[in-house]
Amino acid sequence: MSKLDDKLFANRYKSYKETHLKVTDPEKCLSCKDKPCTYVCPAGVYAWNELENRILTAYEGCVECGTCRYACTYKVIDWQNPKGGYGIQYKFG
Ligand code: SF4
Ligand code: SF4
């Protein structure tokens, strides 16, 4: 059985020039203790940056599972489906 990373590597991505997910109120992240977005996302899209004191997002790797919208402690993640024709293209369904 292949590991998650192997499966993700098999996918193809067509990134749009603009992000389809945003943290709408970054101030909330400062008081978000566990920062669940950094560990629930299977694609590792969210990462806490100590220097900038904020969440950085790598939207290009999103697999469109929708988990982050529900897991965000303060519901400040605005996630929309990528523009038509863009986003992940699953190879194995
Ligand atoms: S929709 Fe899923 S893959 Fe995309 S950023 Fe949210 S948790 Fe990560
Ligand atoms: S879960 Fe939401 S509030 Fe917490 S760090 Fe992530 S984006 Fe910010």
Walkthrough of the structure:
With 93 residues, this protein is of the alpha+beta class. It has one domain: 2-Layer Sandwich (Alpha-Beta Plaits). Helix content is 23%, strand content 22%. It has four helices and six strands, in the order αββααββαββ. The protein has helices spanning 4-10, 26-30, 37-40, 67-71, and strands at residues 12-14, 21-23, 46-49, 54-57, 77-79, 87-89. It is globular, with a radius of gyration of 14 Å. The chain starts with a helix and ends with a strand. One iron/sulfur cluster (SF4) is lined by residues 23, 28-29, 32, 35-37, 46, 55, 72-74, 76-77. Residues 23, 28-29, 32, 35-37, 46, 55, 72-74, 76-77 line the site of one iron/sulfur cluster.
| Strand order within the widest beta sheet | 1-6
Please count the beta strands (DSSP E, at least 2 residues each): 6
Mean pLDDT: 92
Overall radius of gyration = 14 Å
CATH fold-level label: Alpha-Beta Plaits
Question: Keywords, please?
Answer:
binds iron/sulfur cluster, globular, 93 residues, 6 strands, two-stranded antiparallel sheet, alpha+beta, Alpha-Beta Plaits, two-stranded antiparallel ribbon
SSE order and pairing:
Elements: H1 4-10, E1 12-14, E2 21-23, H2 26-30, H3 37-40, E3 46-49, E4 54-57, H4 67-71, E5 77-79, E6 87-89
Antiparallel strand pairs: 1-6, 2-5, 3-4
Bound molecules: iron/sulfur cluster (2 copies).
